[in-house]
Write a structure and sequence with these properties.
10 helices, DNA-binding, elongated, 176 residues, homodimer
Amino acid sequence: MLELVVKQGVHATPMSQVAKEANVAVGTIYHYFENKNEVIQELYKMIVKDYGVVLMANLPEEDFKAQFEIMWTNLYSYFVGNPLAFKFVEYVAAPPIISKEIVKQSVPYIANIRDFFLKGIEEKQIRNVPIRLILQMAFGSVISAVRLKFNEELEMTKEEIDLAIEMSWDAVCYKN
Amino acid sequence: MLELVVKQGVHATPMSQVAKEANVAVGTIYHYFENKNEVIQELYKMIVKDYGVVLMANLPEEDFKAQFEIMWTNLYSYFVGNPLAFKFVEYVAAPPIISKEIVKQSVPYIANIRDFFLKGIEEKQIRNVPIRLILQMAFGSVISAVRLKFNEELEMTKEEIDLAIEMSWDAVCYKN
DNA sequence: ATCAGTAAATTGAATGATCATTCGGTCGCC
DNA sequence: GGCGACCGAATGATCATTCAATTTACTGAT
């Protein structure tokens, strides 16, 4: 369903097609889900949970900036490697399909990311500004980079990725 | 139609409702537009054209950074003052409804913004990195700020706006 | 001024599709 | 023999789009 929805849009993918693709009957889907929207919502939660884990993987112990860089790269790689996930959260996961309520339910999945930046602020590695601003800016820069790649506006070589990370870091890092 | 589409989503707004809201008959709409999608596309172009103009308004002559700040604020104010426009470009203007083709057609409307940053690079005010990266990062930071406000995650006081601008500037400005 | 003539604008009921969802029934397993 | 998983045709709506009919706006001739 993820694939179909990303390619055609939510309302252009009939449940009949979803059923066919999944090799089940339409009725079976309705046996497990209340309605079409609930399937979409579960898809959303799955993806958030997924990248919430990936994001924090393989962090080096020491340097804070190095950790930031790895996190940035983790998320970037996740989206580049899972274009469907990216396109889903970017283009499909919009109100009123995905409500604020559902978004809130997904917050715990990424709580550790928030904690990471809070620690950064305490340790004077990260600007002392509202945490939501930090998160949104950092997250947004990754999204921007992925967009550039998928729209084929930039090739996103190693150098370009490093530039993007550097810009992103300069936006959030502590200033003397 | 903008209003209806933003509130209900494209496929949840029947042309009959659009017609009623506009006090015309359905047929009349089809006299002026090929189909539903074309109306949406014209909406998109209108909005891009609109903020392309607003963005460059009232720029002070002197300081480059000051100009950047005004541009940033211009776009921020535009979106905050036109929530429908914001929600439309953010949530509705997605493929396959708005194709890459349509996006390309709208590029000329914002060519002067590109020129502004190119000049900035020449004058060593802006980082010497691919222009698309600059544009996407700068634009993205405004979007992030507007999102925070609309989601009521941040109040976006004058201070918070200034912080966001500062972060955005640090991301794109020239580094010695 | 008036009016016939005509082209464009407008109308909205009818058409033909497409879908989400339901539910009576089947199947396989314990 | 009973229970849950599974099936998919049938239902009831909803829509985008069409088009024949009607109205309006404009022209120039009288």
